[in-house]
Amino acid sequence: MPVPPEVTGVWRRERITAPGGYLDDTTRVCWVQSLSWYGDIRVRADAPRRPGATSFADYSDAELVELARTQGFAGQLTVTPQMCAWRRDLDYQPPGPVPDEGTWTLDGDVLVEGGIHAEYEEIWRLEPESGGLRAAFARAGGPGLLVIAGDHFLMMRGRGAPLAGESLAALVEAELAAGRRSAAEDLLSMPIAYGRIGERWRISLSTLPWLEGRSLWNAPPELHGGRLRLPDGETWSLLEADAPPDRLAALFALATTEDEPL
Questions:
Q1: In the chain, helix, strand, coil percent, each to 5?
Q2: Do 67 and 47 form a contact (C-beta atoms < 8 A)?
Q3: Angle at CA of residue 85, ends 45 and 158, nearest 5°
Q4: What is the pLDDT of residue 132?
Q5: Domain ranges, residue 88
Q6: pTM of the model
Q7: Does a structural domain hold residue 259?
Q8: Domains contained in the chain, number
Q9: Burial call 178-201: b when 16+ CB within 10 Å, e when fewer
């Protein structure tokens, strides 16, 4: 079921507060909301970044643990007058103990989310250029979701199965402690990328930090009859859109750089 139009778009979190004086107003958080499908990425301001890095091999063990604190999830949003419920079909972290549900109130371009299963308050502000076209695509060959809202996108490829554990950081620490560096890197290798379409699909936030500043694709994907074919041959299927195929195709035509794809 589509969410209310005023909830669609791209929301950037300004801050989260919780009892005990907890405040976070520095983590970079983007929630991209289409007609019903959404994607969310949360990267800490102090997350390790290494200029010139090309893989996790360029990061220290301690940095891998810090990178594992990134959050990202995607699925369908259900909205009632009383609450929002974010179904997490894909999740960078292990599943939490309670559903992702919160109260919501809207005041212009500001959405206030309140906790239902825990005490917290998040302040979200609607991003410029997030109005207009909304669309979502599902990956045909495995778990994955591409969400578009205005000039913004979020693309996520999921793992074969959800992680089992307390947190991704704890799982990575355990693999490193056992001398299994490769396994620790594999745990982190779930691609999530957020960015702007008008900037040639340039990535500004990612779980693979060396991709930031680069294009999502090295050539334009091709859209035919609701099927999106990526430059590497992978196929994605259209889930929803509020625009005709020619407008969607025009967005993908902007991906014209020679960067390596995600």
A1: 15, 40, 45
A2: yes
A3: 60
A4: 87
A5: 5-252
A6: 0.96
A7: no
A8: 1
A9: eeeeeebbebbebbbbbbbbeebb
